[in-house]
Queue: 2 jobs
Job 1
Amino acid sequence: MAWETVIGLEVHVQLSTKSKLFSGSDIKFGAEPNTQANIFDLALPGTLPVFNESVLKMAVKFGLAINAKINKKSVFDRKNYFYPDLPKGYQVSQLDHPTVGPGSLKIKLDNGAEKKININRAHIEEDAGKSLHEDYQGMSGIDLNRAGTPLLEIVSEPDLRSAEEAVLFLKKLHSVIRYLDISDAIMAEGSMRCDANISVRKVGEIELGTRTEIKNINSFRFVERAINHEVRRQIELIEDGADIAQETRLYDSELDETRPMRSKEIANDYRYFPEPDLLPIIIDDTYIDAVRDELPELPEEKKQRFISQLKLNEYDAGVLVTNREIADFFEEIAIATQDSKAAANWVSQDMMALLNKNNCTILETPISAERLSSLIMRIKDGTISGKIAKRVFEFMVSDSSSVDSIIKEKGLEQVSDTNVIDQLVDDVIAKNQSQVEQYRAGKEQVIGFLVGQCMQQSKGKANPSQVNALLREKMR
Amino acid sequence: MIEKTVSELARALSTGSVSSVELTQAFIDRITSIDTQQNSYITVDEETALRQARQADDARSRGTDTLLLGIPIAHKDLFCTQGTKTTCGSKMLKDFVSPYDATVVARLKDSGAVTLGKTNCDEFAMGSSTENSFFGPTRNPWGQNRVPGGSSGGSASAVAAGLCAMATGTDTGGSIRQPASFCGVTGLKPTYGRVSRWGMIAYASSLDVGGPLAKTAHDAAIMLNAIAGHDPKDSTSVSISTEDYTQSLDAPLTNLRIGLPRQYFSKDLDPRVATIIQETARDLEKLGATLVDIDLQKSTLSLPAYYVIAPAEASTNLSRYDGVRYGYRCDDPLDLEDMYTRSRTEGFGNEVKRRIMIGTYALCAGYYDAYYKKAQKIRRLVKQDFDNAFQNVDVILSPTSPFTAFELGAKKDPVSMYLEDVYTLGVNLAGIPGISVPAGFIDGLPIGAQLIAPDFKEGLLLNIAHQYQQNSDWHKQKPSISKGVK
């Protein structure tokens, strides 16, 4: 039987403000427990929230980037439940009047087709603290550093049809958020977190199946694995004639399985009501327009510009704009070298491979855009061949000196001296008489072998076009 | 000396006829002699008070001469005071010491006032008699078997008995005005947002406001000058500028239109109370005001709306008292659930638990529309009702409470206690200011008249109250407990 998977994502993004949503505490990652929690964060009696307006701007930026309706009035609500890492006994969130209303993002499927994924809303809310269960001999520790960190919760419609689509959507979302620079959005550090609502139904059915919510998925890879696992579990259950329980499940990445959360971990009724300690946020078109004016170029626009202005093909442009830093890196090189094709090849192939190998970001590599530009320039001006350039690139990873001094020090300059090449060509012709015969007999492709011999003998340094021309001349 | 008003004391301090240390010591002595019986205070911080008094005297010797410099006052134990216990009248916070001062406390401190201590109140301000305090009931200086009203009963009784020059209170449904009426003092509930709530421990956030309990309207104006004004730490505090509330006290009452709501003088009202308020109206008429009968049709809806909204907010405001970070924690909890349940069961009193339950119920998913949402609609109607009335009158006059102080333990049924606040609740729902001024006596017990004005017209209320007090002496009467004191 054919099954269709229906997925909606709830993505929590920690906004990278200087201070918390309603208090002046810092929100640096990795600080000692409870060093970033003030009297408000501890929910001491009598303390009151004061809204951090930079959060509003970030939320509106995001809304504009996904072409969403920006609500002129947003209202904070209290979501009530007891948990030790929730000091006030309620989380301040936005229920009926979120700052960002309906919008959408397009993803590019593997078959090249574009698919629009609708986003229901994005609302502002507080993060909770952390309960630490290790090292306390039967007790729990509470770290309130994270409590009150501003979050944007982005809720997609159930428009995703596979784990792959979910990952594509999440990556696109990540890319937009990084472009807007409103969050670090590092899943491993929890600054971007994903819950997935998953159900299955028979192909052709209109009604949605019973869904489960999978929490605690903290990498792109786990999103795919958690969804695939859950889909298999649901299909197996239904095929065995069982029902799916509507429940919240945790993904365990070590066992690669989902399991139900204990019912005590889930409150049944959050008793939402408008937060009386805060006034509604009212904004006007002037405010929205001002934020719009500050929007950076977004991935889609950048891609179109790379295609039209820098003459990249669609594929290269798409790869390069995924990450804002990589796109900027590429563009700097394209401008410096006036050779966007070479820049695109070096960045999307050699640099990307390097990043994957070293598991680092483009800003952390020893190869700056400036150095890569001069490498490309040395190819263009004939100092080195493209092949030698790959070797120089390898040296550049561990050697921070300039491209020119690496070439010089390692003796990698291309040999273009006519006398030297003349000698080289004579030598190769003398040693490979049978191939020369074949060439002269009209077997044109043998030239490749002979050029290769010259290059090998010169350790790759001979100017290949010079070698080629001279060989042909001498064998005429 | 302790019988004097703040403005009189300020003059005495200014001329040097008394020092702040002498004055503070006199109040402490008086507290020591009678408060074991009266129980107006939960905490008296003698050491801090005398230190502040010395600082005030030093400042004066260096040339500072402000009205509140060296004046000994008390704070309702709902205001956070750095270094002195803040209990909210609850076992939950019986040993809680705040690491910071409430804005009201800080502003009065900055004005030079000396803090004698913290006054008793109904637990988390929930009550109308100060009987719901973990620290025992406060007695009314006008009758030792009578309640002082509530929830600011400690503050009102302390002012009445000369245990402080004046005191702060908080008013969520009448908690400043009703005890002012019961104790024969002047109590002002400012407009919502006029006084910062930072550090004023929340009962019902959208209704709570801090204000003065004083011997006279003039004194209340002096305190309001110190505490009113925008506070960036309270998002609901308004940025509208304040005025010098002592400046308008002497304005004549000519052209003043006073509304008497028919619904507040129904047949059910004790005729003795009705007579007193009508006399107050005639006295004000003599001072130049015009009396107008008006309607407040929606006023009967205030009580049920209030008892949904206030408990709803309270139920979540009080969630933070969970035994995790501060406050009472039960002994030997078995697990988290047990710690929550027992800490809260043992730490809160019955009335607080009752209101948490009412509020939790009203906010539940299935009942939200029927209760909380409907109550909010009523709240808007009540506000509209007042707005309409103020089209035709400048202020409204009514009883503060339908009764004088009742006997301790007399109101066993919570609903009969809730009815205490029938004249005061609407003012909180509408967010407008109200004042209670002593207007007469019934069987030796004081009763207050309430004046209500539109938003931010505290100056007008104080002006009328002051003019009335210039022409009456109800506010000058002293309870028997005060007789024979120098």
Job 2
Amino acid sequence: MAEHKWTMIVDLDKCTGCQACVVACHAENNVPIASETEVVRGRGLHWIRIERYWEGEFPNVKAKFLPVFCQQCGSAPCEPVCPTYASYHSEQENLNIQVYNRCVGTRYCGNNCPYKVRYFNYRAPEFDAPLEQQLNPDVTVRGAGVMEKCTFCIQRIRRAAETANAEGRPIADGEVQPACVQACPSDALIFGDKYDPESRVARMTPHNRQFKLLEHLGTEPAVYYLKGGETHVGD
Amino acid sequence: MTQITRRNFLKVSAAGTATAILTGCGGERWVELVPYVVAPEEQLAGVPTYFASTCRQCPAGCGILVKIMNGRAVKIEGNPEHPVNRGRLCARGQAGLQLLYNPDRVPGAVEQSERGSRRYTPIAWNEAINRLYEGLNEAGSRVAIWLGTTTSGHLVDLFTLFADAIGAQPPVRYDLYAGYNGYNVLETASEGLLGTAALPAYDLANADVIFSFGADYLGTWLNATGYGVGFGQFRAQPYGKRGVFVQFEPRMSNSGASADRWVPVRPGDEALVAQALVRLIADEGVGPAERVEAARAAAADVDLEAAAASCHLTVAELAALARTFAEAQRPVALPGAALAGRDNALAAVAAVQTLNLIAGTIGQPGGLLPAQALGDAGLRPAVTSSYGDAQALVARMQAGEIDVLLVHGANPVYEMPPESGIVEALANVQTVVSFNPLVDETAVYADLILPDRVYLEGWGYEVVTPALGGLPVVSSQQPVVGPLHDVRATGDVLLTVARGLAGAAQALPWEDEVAFLRERITALPVGAFGGEGPDLQWARFQQFGGWWPAQAPQAELPDVEVGGVAPVAAPQYQGDEGEFPYHLHLFMNPLLGDGRGASMPWLQGSPDPMTTISWQTWVELNPVTADELGIQTGDVVRVTSPFGTVEAPAYVYPAIRPDTIALPLGQGHTDSGRYARDRGANPVRLLGGEPGDNGANLMWSNVRVKIERTGEQKSLARFETTVEEAADAHPPI
């Protein structure tokens, strides 16, 4: 039995599409920036992306934002297809782990992921000196030929767990904040341990606006989306 | 602070000595390096240290915490205690590391013997400072200072004292951020309404209805991060109340995308619509009696049919919006950038502020917040100059009245329309000195570049009043890492040269900029973090990231009343409607802002929220317009105004009026480093040089353009896929 169930809630009523989470994630996780040519080729990469959907036609047109990142599935399609066990389920954190130095780049996981949140390093990342000094020493820089994806900032989870362990106490709610959650101005992202009944995510779920992405596939995502865009009652 | 890199550390260890003496980066002074055998108190391997400072990526003045590991800045986070942004930080704020570690920073003082040659010769700082001194000494009062809105408040204050002492005109504080958003117009309007010339602030967190007239307050307007925090609270009010947000703008911004109702108003008619709402509140008698009465006092004679038609609404639908506003508990109206970008700017902003007057929420929760006094420390928010002031300086340069031009934090050659004559005017200035950290478009025309420390290396403060919750704030900026290059703080350079100049020596007696900062800060009353005595007060100021009182002081509200009917002149457009059939709309996206984001790859490579395009400039047009003109996404088009031309690929955008063409600001740099250079187009080229509204503001939102295909194609670097494209890649099971 896992000790934690790290869970994210995305309140679509508050997401303004401002990209603060996207850049915060690049900074925290050493995610390389794809050049213009690479983006044109469809090889751009962000561990968190904000999808924008249009509804209706002018003048009654609406845009809707949907932040999408690894859903940390309870029954993850990416895990069983990995021939090298680079993609596996962690017992401790209840997360989908990607072990970069096991990965041989078959990209089966990326093909099998229904959310398209796994990104392949088509080339080795380059950081023009002295930009390499911005790199976070808590996170590996992935080389060419390796799949990568959102980790819920597992380095922050581990650091908080070690601090709490050293102080002989459980991790407090709010002590772990992935970079995206920390940056989000409008509090659209909420993160915590669902197994802690006092945590904000546990108290907020089940929620009357809640849904999960592609729920019918049975992937059991650890990310809850709260429907936005219309007046609702209760929060 | 000593910068200890791993390499230096290894060198020292290998030498087998307990201490070693190495020269600092530039050789200007000796630095003692102690290996980690005797670790600095705050340094533990693998354990980060956080320093509080102030973000300088836009003028808002957000508080930041910078995470330092082994002498390197590795992450910028929001300061949770800070009243401006409450621990949150936008995309540009996150990217500040890429200004610090930008590979194209000017590594030390350089001279350029032939302007525009881009050949720079390093010179010693002593020589550079001497040359600056000689230039200033000969020029006397024929000196001009051009600052930007991200120039630290302490430099604005020092330069102002300096200019006064040598008899020169006060510094011009103008850049595209201020010009586009009409900060000067907003300040003037606030002075008229509240008695203080300061940028307005709105308590969105406690509002229940927001009517925004083109204010992209969730993107780049005033304090986008703070307003983002407010918006989150606005959407989660007690008892499940969600707030109603209506956005009036010709092209959907990312704020507009979050609106409950997006109203595509014709460019120029925003003030007309605001007046129509007042008229409807008065005529229909909706809302509390005092609001109806106030509306009746202010209601102008408005053609309701025309106002509704310019919004693609019926009069009944517009009346329903008026009812929503009037019947709300705490409605608020925001005057956006486009209002300030035309000839009737002040009257248009006033028309929107009239809605706030009618709401009766000025100085109340959910309303327009008044500026707060900061005690007797001599600190006040730095005011911005108008485009007209900048244009007047260009004219003086052109007339040969300026011998020395000092530029800090602004990039006029990129930011001013070519029609303003800025490039020609620079040729008439004997000595141009740039203090900017990159070789930007203006530095190309400079004789001397004396790079300042970037904000993560340097000292400063920023006065923000009011911030969220109505608190007055003096935000603290301190070095979080040692200088990466042989750069000198501009404040110190200025104080050094001032010592030799008649008049200036007495006016600027401080030994260095830190002495000046300390004197100013310790004169403040005791703030939220206490601190008895100047030493403790100064320490707390740095430790907590600034000064603010524990509770918002009771503001003295000026007697504000609806001042009767204020007519707004019909908008005048630049360009003949027959020749130039479309309205031009410019916008800043939350990544590149006014163009200073372009030198940072994180901001270049992250997608624009609405189009998902990165690295490029594009031209947005409505699908109907695109069909009529036979233009498809990816066709390179030529946009021509009466003043200039730009070319960029088209992007068919569903949420823009068919009579409007929109372009993002920020690209089209010829310099500013490898990531910015030769990429996209600068739509400022489409604007005229003459200021509008009695010579005050940059007229960017009343320009007409025509558009035509060039016959070329360019692939757009976008992250989105359409349903058809996705179906090709992944056939349905």
